[in-house]
Amino acid sequence: MNMKVLKFGGSSLGSSESLQRVRAIIGSDKFPLIVVVSATGNTTDELQQVSQLACHGDLSYLSLLLQLEEHHLKLYSDLVGETENNEILSVFDQLRQVCKGVYLLKELTDKSLDFILGSGELLSSIILSAFLVKEGVDATLFDSRQIIKTDNSFGNALVDFERTKRNLEESSSRFTEVNVFPGFIASTDGEQTTTLGRGGSDYTASILASILKAEVVEIWTDVDGIMTADPRLVNRSHTLKHVSYREALELSHFGAKVLYFQSILPAYKEGIPLKVKNTFSPALEGTLVSNRIGDTDLIKGIASTDDISVLSVSGNHLHSNDDFFSRLFKVLADEKVHVVFTTYANAEYTVTLGLRSTDSARALKSIKAEFKNSENSKTIQSLVVDEGYSLLALVGDNMRDQVGVSGKMFNVLGKNGVSIKAIAQGSSERNISAIIPKSDLNKALNVLHESFFLSEVKRINLFVIGTGNVGKAFLNQVTKQFSYLKKHHQLNIKAIGVANSRKMNFNKDGIPLSKWEKYLNEGEKFSTKDFINTMTELNFRNSIFIDITGAPDISNLYLEILKKSISVVTPNKIAATRSYEDYLALKSSAKRYRSQFLIETNVCAGLPVLSTLSDLIRSGDKVIKMEAVLSGTLNFLFNEYDGSKPFSEVIKYAKALGYTEPDPRLDISGEDVMRKLLILIRESGHAVEMNQLEATPFLPSSCQQSETLDEFYAKVEAEEEYFKSLYQKSLDSNTRLKVVASYANGVGTVSLKEIASSHPFYNLEGKDNVVLFYTNRYNEQPLVIKGAGAGAEVTASGIFADVLRIAQSDF
Question: What's the pTM value of the predicted model, to 2 decimals?
């Protein structure tokens, strides 16, 4: 018989408006049709609550039943125009009788529960068929209990397909244009109501379709089709146009909620295609499930299950105990424990099972009981259940024999700090599954979805502390480049958290970059601890922490942040210039936890000094000698100062231009240059501490200690003759003053030098920096890196470059 089977879920039947949409969908199709319905809205959940209240002796079950009755009668009245329906009243009369028995006995059997829960489908089928008739449709209501026969396994009955087929073929003589069947319910030979388990209404539709050889089964629900991932967790998941039956079965097994494994088997065996469509957007194409081949997609979807317990069974004799596995899985089957994941480590003789968390206690108890009196008491040496995990699986027919899928999957998870408890791949090679900490599920799903489905666009999540001159310049640069980077480099950069010393604000979907100052001002009081906690709790993939401050307390947290697999970008030199042991800890932690610690702006602002040095070292070169002017501030001061105005005024001018640290004393004292030299030495591969460097201060001793910045300016002004003498001496000898940092033969020095006109440093103008690398390869002529070494825009561009380096790398 050439017909369609349409199944409508509870969300499609929850109100009179929804049922009118169902009527429109039915009316727009060709007849004859089989229509299978679930219970309306939340009716099944409410009937479950009724049963529990009655079982616990709580008479409030009666008022809940009355509410359900009034709801269904109102639905009927709104659609049909009549206030009462004897069939609806009869269903509720029987419900009250059964629930009274449950209440009196204080016992809820599977048999009673099947009758109670199955009533919801009966009610919705009565209402829909009456509405269709009222609308002039030639519709007939069938009782599925008279058609579908099962054993007496109440709660999840097994269908007798031969008897069901005979019953349906006999009933088909009464088929009209639209034939309405309640889903989920069936009956035993003794006419006792049974239910078909999870996805039971879909199963009803699939059974009817397989017997009638229908052309298609349409599953009408409240989603647009089968999605690439759970849309509640992955915002950018999208509807799949087609999946194979095998892919649908795999997705269902690993947690996809649209279809259930058992429910689609009858249609699958007959080769009948299924279509998943949205009742509320019927014009959308939906998802076709069929045996069609030829799709080119490597991965079709990422399925996930939230709450998984990991049960591990270990013992030296597992491999030699012939009946161990049969006993293990039989006892779990007898307890109706659903095993979603299995691995076996032969070397350790350990079986690892992934179970739904609701089953773990029952599974543990039953296994202990089964093996308690084993002939070999040492069969099981360890039986452990770990909670707090989730399961995810990549699914796709085209994964078979495809090289690199698992490598890509685990690389993506690893570089985002997602630890893996267990892994498995099915023999069909259509899935790769992993058990991971539940806290990482959201991040794992998003990063895998981004990698396999949205590889053309990569989202980068920024957490920025520091919105002074440099911070403001950085965020403005990101704002200006946002569209360009998304279009030409497929990078979607989001500022998730922004903070300064007063305020902080977060937006998990990204703070609008053009309005970041407004959002920051509307934020809460800043707390370093709260900022870091929020960042780590959000647990976003591809996260980068950017510290644009000089604060020691923030730099103290880098190690903790790197261990969370969050990369760190900073111009703050404090962390990299503590003890060499601390420096190595930062480097090794970044490597171990697949994060990055990038400090390009620690030396020469935006100049590519450290990245160039890194390239030299990684390529096998060795630094013999370094000579550099590392302070754009100091270079500017001595280039600008000519004795016409006090040296103190030149310092203030440089600060006003943004060429100094917030506290210029850090620049003037030479401490900043010392830190930069130490970083250069360490990055070139030498274990050196700060106290091993030799520094010759150029400031008079009177200027080297001051409580406030104003006091410092006053002391510098008082020593104006000293600075004039330095300048005059240099002028007389036709040299120029430069603060030079150098490293050779294991000795690092910083001092003010008079540079002759023949030296590369002589013509270094303005705030420029220059670094000379003498290496095994560049031993005659040094490798020279020269350019602007101070200024908010320059430093910001260096930070931006580090961010892009991380974003475009496989970190």
Answer: 0.71
